Amino acid sequence: MIKTISSLLILLLLTACSSAPKIQPAAEPPPVWTGPMRDYRPVTERESTIFSTLITRAGYGIYRTGEDKMSPTGMYLLRRKAQQKLGADGKKPLAITVHHLVVYVNAKTQLRKTTMGGVVAGAVGGAVVAQSMDKMTVNLSQSVIDSTKFTYVENEYERAFYTEEENLNRATVYVIYIEADINGKRTFTKTMASAKEPFPVVIEASVDYFLSHY
User: Fold this and answer.
1) Which positions of the chain have pLDDT values less than 70?
2) How many other C-beta atoms can be found within 10 angstroms of the C-beta atom of residue 36?
3) What are the UniProt keywords, alphabetically (predicted)?
4) What are 127-140's pLDDT values in tens digits?
């Protein structure tokens, strides 16, 4: 029973996120690329996955959002915005190597409370809990991180964990990592934002923050 409710809730959440407004191609003429862009990311970072549908598992309520949910993709945004900021005059070739660009969603607390509310008090109870959880939010959090905090985790879903200080209300959040080298300078950033924000806005903000270090 609990597993069935959990699976349905996660599917609904995935559907809701995938139906968010998508960024449209830029109105201005596309920039002229003046250098290579190498994609060294693990293949899995481009694919969607649900880490667990079992409410008792640590990876429950956490999933990775694949590029099929992005239009345009984070890779395209990174290249276009890097060109606009760093090579707009066409005189400075850009060599970009992307090591990580991945998006996670942590909806663990919301899904657990909604699922248990549904089990204890039926559909109405689950709806009441979901409505109360919907009021929870979190401030945008962005930082430059040490790559070891990303690489050396026992389970991939742990990359979507947050501290109490980062997310006091335990709201559902996007967690976006970008690690790339542009013309020899390598930077690794993390962005955490409320899942109430349109996903296109969040992915663009994460790229803008990354490029603010160049």
Assistant:
1) 1-34, 89-91, 113-137
2) 10
3) Signal
4) 433 444 454 567 89
Can you give the pTM of this predicted structure?
0.79
SS3 103: strand
Cβ–Cβ < 8 Å for 63, 14: yes
**Prior bond to 93 cis, omega within 30?**
no
**For the chain, give me the number of helices (H) and strands (E)?**
5, 7
Cα of first residue to Cα of last residue in the chain, in angstroms, is: 51
Tens of pLDDT along 30-66? Answer: 555 668 899 999 999 999 999 999 999 999 999 999 9
Q: How far apart are CA 46 and CA 80, in angstroms?
A: 19
pLDDT at residue 47 in the model:
96
Domain layout of the chain by residue ranges: 49-167+193-211
How far apart are the C-alpha atoms of 209 and 46, rounded to whole Å?
A: 21
Tokens of 121: 């008090």
